[in-house]
Amino acid sequence: MSSSSRKAIPPQGFTLVELLVVVAIVSILVGLLIPAVSRVRSLSRRSQCANNLRQVALASLEYEGLHRTLPPGLNQFEFPQSPTYRGTSLFVFLLPHLDEPALALQWNFERPLENAAGGATALSAKQVPVLVCPSSRLGADTFCRGKMHFGVTSYGGNGGRRSFDPQQATLDGMFHTTGPASLPRGGQQPVAMAEVDDGVGNTLLFGERSHHDANFETFARRHWANSLTTVGSWAAIGGRRRIGDVTLSTLAPLNYRLPFDIADVSRADPPIRRSRDFRHYEDLRICAFGSEHHGGANFAMADAAVRFLSDTIQHETLQALSTRAGNEIVDQP
Q1: Predicted structure pTM score
Q2: What are 237-277's pLDDT values in tens digits?
Q3: Spatial separation of the C-alpha atoms in residues 204 and 173, rounded to whole Å
Q4: What is the distance between the alpha carbons of residues 274 and 62, in angstroms, rounded to a whole number?
């Protein structure tokens, strides 16, 4: 057979043009896929967070069914030896209802500070998974305050229109300090569900806390305030201001962040002339509801239903939802 009668053999492999086309198509597909995967993960974390809040709300209702009141926000008493205040937080009271019966049995209610003994192995340092939002950007589920270790919570009980500083608490939410050393007055009692005149579906029970605020941290590094990474101990053992660890309120709008850093402090209104003037802004930020989810935060209502509220919600509406007996007419957001 002559060479002219042989069939031509096609070249093998891809040409450079074909390879570039394939690479371009793959790049486009990856570019479309990554945001979709990110959105799915974000929605999954938000859903898990909502489930956590639902469990915490149901635990509170179970507690209320047994005791006829919700748990104290922080039950406080004064040690007779010195003006030192100790207490037991709402999350400690809820431990038996959050699948943590062993931890609850070990807890020392008479001498709360002993629960922080043992460093990183202390009872107060235990991680309670249901109390941590999967979107939390803390990077760890424990933190140190002085030499004591504490487990973190991403959630706070509804303290009404103001829960922090406790001396100025409005006491119109669902949780506040109780007991002999409670503030703003001694002998306060926990809230019963019968006191919720605004309707359990229109009253916040728990919400999320964001530990991230770059501007606020510039003041914390100057020691004008505690870092937000050291706020949110579920144990909240000692100190009269520890109610700020376990309750949040609507003094500030949802997802409030400090609008200036320490280098731009001249923008502050009211003005900041010295470190103590920063207390106003610390109070605003410590108690603010917020989250690491895009566009809003999860809340558990007093009927244990969970809702995602947009951070565009009117501040007045959020405040109306935070009071248990304000008789406000609330347009459902």
Answers
A1: 0.86
A2: 878 889 999 999 999 999 999 999 999 999 999 999 888 99
A3: 8
A4: 47
CB-CB neighbours of 72 under 10 Å: 26
**Measured distance CA(268)–CA(264) in Å, rounded:** 8
Q: Where are the domains of the chain?
A: 39-322
For CA atoms 260, 264, 267, 270, give the dihedral sign: positive
208: left (phi over 0), alpha (psi -120 to 50) or beta: beta
CB–CB of 247/158 below 8 Å?
A: yes
142: tokens are 């424990």
Residue with tokens 């964001």: 210
Predicted confidence band of residue 21 (pLDDT cuts 50, 70, 90): confident
Phi and psi at residue 251, in whole multiples of 5°? -60, -35
Residue 142 phi/psi, 5° resolution? -135, 160
> Is the separation of the CB atoms in 89 and 74 below 8 Å?
yes
d(CA 295, CA 41): 15
* CA-wise closest residue to 141 among 157, 166, 156, 124: 124
Query: Dihedral sign, CA of 275, 280, 283, 286?
Result: negative
Single-letter amino acid code for the residue at 27: S
